Amino acid sequence: SRVAAAGKIAADLKKAGLKTQVASLPWDAYIAALQSGAYDLYLGGIKVTPAMDFRPWLLDVGAYKFTGYINGHLEDLLNQFRSGQNPEGLAGLYTQIRDILDQDLPYRSLFYKTSGAILSPALTGDVKPLFTDYYRNSDGWTVRYEATPETEGAE
User: Fold this and answer.
1) Does position 146 have pLDDT exceeding 80, yes or no?
2) Which of the four pLDDT bands, split at 50, 70 and 90, describes residue 15?
3) What is the pTM of this model?
4) Integer Cα distance of 147 and 22 in angstroms
5) Is residue 53 within 8 Å of residue 11, measured between CB atoms?
6) How far apart (Å, rounded) are the C-alpha atoms in residues 55 and 62?
7) DSSP conformational letter for 30
8) What's the rounded Cα separation, in Å, for the pair 148 and 153?
9) Residue ranges of the alpha helices (H) in 1-155?
10) pLDDT-based confidence at 125, cuts 50/70/90?
11) Quick one: how far is CA 50 from the chain centroid?
12) How big is the CA angle at 30 (ends 55 and 2), to the nearest 5 degrees?
């Protein structure tokens, strides 16, 4: 859980001599606490849309932007990217956005999903996962394993 992770991080910070306090709050109180800005560090999670639109976390008026980070040039690039008006220029826009985020680092990702299972050569069928739905079409997937002395006789 995020609360357990926050406790572990707080314990490590305390070992380093920093004073910490972990607060687990109901959603409305959590949002109010973030909007107040009265914190040095917060641990949260996000669920992005299938369009992978991170603007709510990065735009100055973003619904989930609690860091105080402002970069007008980044906002312009994100809005241009989202508009899709120049499909040929998307790669260049993405590169500029990535470079700004790498330099400024307004958020730090501790964990993220990986796609190891969907790349397994043992997985067959119509495997067409989405970033937001790894198991799309999974009702038609099959897994083929080679019998080994360890797996023979296993149920």
Assistant:
1) no
2) very high
3) 0.54
4) 49
5) no
6) 6
7) H
8) 10
9) 2-15, 27-36, 55-58, 72-83, 90-104
10) confident
11) 12
12) 85
Length of the chain: 155
Q: If you search the block for the tokens 């198991």, which residue do you land on? A: 135
| Residue corresponding to tokens 């958020």 | 107
Q: What letter represents residue 116's amino acid? A: G
Using pLDDT thresholds of 50, 70 and 90, give the confidence band for residue 155.
Answer: low
| Bridge partner list, 87 | none
* Amino acid letter, 36: S
Which residues face 95 on adjacent strands? Answer: none
CA 39/CA 67 separation, integer angstroms: 10
Q: Rounded to whole angstroms, what are the CA distances from 120 to 54, 75, 117? A: 29, 38, 5
- Residue 40: partners with Cβ closer than 8 Å, 6 or more residues away: none
- Location of structure tokens 């040039």: 73
Helix axes 90-104, 72-83, angle to 10 degrees: 150
